[in-house]
Amino acid sequence: MRRRAVLRIGSLAVLAALVALCAIALRPAALGGPVAIVIVSGQSMEPGFQSGDLVLALRQRSYERGDVVVYRVPAGEPGDGSIVIHRVVGGSGSAGYRVRGDNKNGLDPWTPTDDDVLGTARLTVPRAGSALVALRSPLGLAAVAGLVTFLIAIGSGAGAREPRRASRSRSQSS
C-alpha cells in the first residue's frame, strides 16, 4: 500500500512538472510569452489556411520573405489592435514588412514592424478554431458544464462503498 502511494505522488509530481514546463514554454503572447494562438477568419490565406483553422505562431528575432506571420495592426492605423495572419512579401522589421494574403492580389495597407509581429505560423490544427468558438457559445459552455458535472457524479459514485453489514450469524447470536 505504501509503495502505491509513493508511486501515485511521484506520478503527480512528474505531471505537475510537465504542466508547468508546458505553461512556461507555451505561454501565450497576451501573457508575454512566445506563442500567439490565432483562429483564422476569412479566405485571404486559402488554400493553405482555411477559415476556422487554429494556428500557433512562435515569436522569432526576425522574419523574412515567405514567412507566414501573425501581427497586430499597428497603433493609430485603421483597425489598430486587430490580429492578421498574412505572408511577408518584402520590407524589413525596422521599416515595416510588406504583407499580403495568399489569396489576394494587393498588399495589406499596414506595414507591421518587428514590434507588431507576434510570431510566424508553426502549427496549424484544421477546424480546431471552429470547435473552440463553438465551445465559447452559451450552448457550448452549458455542454461542458454538463459533462464536468456528469464526470464528477460518476467519479464520486464509483468511489462510494456501501457500509459493511454485520453478518447474520453475529447478529443472531447476540
CATH class group of the domain at 29-130: Mainly Beta
The H/E string reads: HEEEEEEHHH
- By helix and strand content, what is the structural category? alpha+beta
Question: Radius of gyration, rounded?
Answer: 26 Å
What do you see in this structure?
This protein is α+β, with helices and mostly antiparallel strands and 174 residues long. The chain has a domain of 102 residues: Umud Fragment, subunit A (Ribbon), CATH 2.10.109.10. Strands 1-2-6-3-4-5 form a six-stranded antiparallel beta sheet. Strand 4 and strand 5 form a beta hairpin. The two termini are 35 Å apart. The model has no long low-confidence stretch (mean pLDDT 83).
Note the main attributes of this structure.
4 helices; Umud Fragment, subunit A
Summarize the helices and strands and which ones pair or pack:
Blueprint: H1 2-25, E1 35-39, E2 54-58, E3 68-72, E4 83-92, E5 96-100, E6 117-125, H2 128-135, H3 138-159, H4 168-173
Antiparallel strand pairs: 1-2, 2-6, 3-4, 3-6, 4-5
Brief account:
The chain is α+β, with helices and mostly antiparallel strands and 174 residues long. It is built from 4 helices and 6 strands. The protein has a 6-stranded antiparallel sheet with strand order 1-2-6-3-4-5.
